[in-house]
Amino acid sequence: MRKNSYKRIIQHVALSTSSPDPLVEQLSKLSINAIDVIQPEALMVARDKVRNRILLFDYHASLDIFQQVLNLPLVSKHFETILINVPHRLTTETILRYGNIKGLFYSHESPEKIVKGFDEIINGKNWLPRDVSSQLLHHYRHVVSANTSPAVVDLTAREIDILRSLQSGATNMQMAEDLFITESTVKSHLYQIFRKLSVKNRLQAIAWANQHLLS
């Protein structure tokens, strides 16, 4: 692999650091940069400090992570992710669960090809199969076309606060605590936001916010 000029690293998200994933170990040995392990709990307290990290998930292990760790804030735009060992084509909803996905590798792909993809991702590119790129392009086109111009969307200041909290991956309870309101009030705001933006869920609202709200 060629040496890159970006000081970014890939970190494998795993429930335990004591039993390394054999495939990830192999990829780490082939890569010019070692792949460290990070536990999900660390992401909950460092979601605003991960701009130089790319999070690596093994598909099968990630199913256990999502079951055991609720509200993992991967929908935050601050997270870039890679998914490996994918056994079959995934639904768009499943792909979106991994946040800002930069790379997806099926289980039949060779370690050498995966590492080559890692190199491109570290250098700021995407490495997605054509079918996945088509899925995501179709999804975001639909999201954009379903929403009106931000100039005519009558969002209140509080609703914008809620949207920004959604972007950061906050739960309803976290939003209530941060904004000093009740959880039921948060739910009421979310209902109004979804109605005004013509979206059906949090992921679509976040996609709208990423498209229209200034950082």
From TrEMBL:
Alphabetically ordered keywords of this record: DNA-binding, Transcription, Transcription regulation
Domain HTH luxR-type intervals: 148-213
GO function term, MF aspect, one: DNA binding
An annotated GO BP: regulation of DNA-templated transcription
Presence of keyword Transcription regulation: yes
CDD domains assigned to the protein according to its UniProt record, in alphabetical order: LuxR_C_like
Entries under Pfam families matching the protein: GerE, VpsT-like_REC
PANTHER family: DNA-BINDING TRANSCRIPTIONAL ACTIVATOR DEVR_DOSR
Protein name: LuxR C-terminal-related transcriptional regulator
Organism encoding this protein: Vibrio qingdaonensis
Classification of source organism: Bacteria, Pseudomonadati, Pseudomonadota, Gammaproteobacteria, Vibrionales
